[in-house]
Design a protein that fits this description.
- By secondary structure, this protein is mostly helical.
- It has a single domain (28-150), classed as Arc Repressor Mutant, subunit A.
- Helix content is 64%, strand content 11%.
- Strands 1-3-2 form a three-stranded antiparallel β-sheet.
- Helix 1 (15-39) packs across helix 5 (107-128).
- The chain is globular and about 55 Å long.
- The two termini are 24 Å apart.
Amino acid sequence: MNTITAKNAAQQDFMPLMRELVRAYQAFASLDAQLHRASGTGLTVSQADVIFTLGNTPGMCCGEIGERTLITKGTLTGVLDRLAQKGLVQRSQDPRDGRSTKISLTAKGRAVFEREFPRQVAALKQRFDRLSPAQRKRGIALLQEIRAIFE
């Protein structure tokens, strides 16, 4: 086994795969942000992610939102504060656990979700439709394998 050094680290055989994975994520994130800016809602990517996560649900606790969106606890608090200021989400005591706060969409938030989520999915569908069903299936399998090596 060869020792990895500062001199040879960039030449490791997995590096091209890692670079393409990062580039794919960056390209997706850039398009996602561009679509949100073009929507005119004034929502950030994180705010839209929370709205889209809460859509079609009766609400969730902060921990569940964080797990689904991968937004850190500290960042999530600020995102929720700004969404509440915009009148898009509301906080309430979770009836199942009085120590927990439940976050749900307001009527205004549901309207944003019902308008923007299908628009976002349609825009992304145009891109993913460039791949055949077989390519998408292979992509899912490979990404699942890659994720598993990091868990």
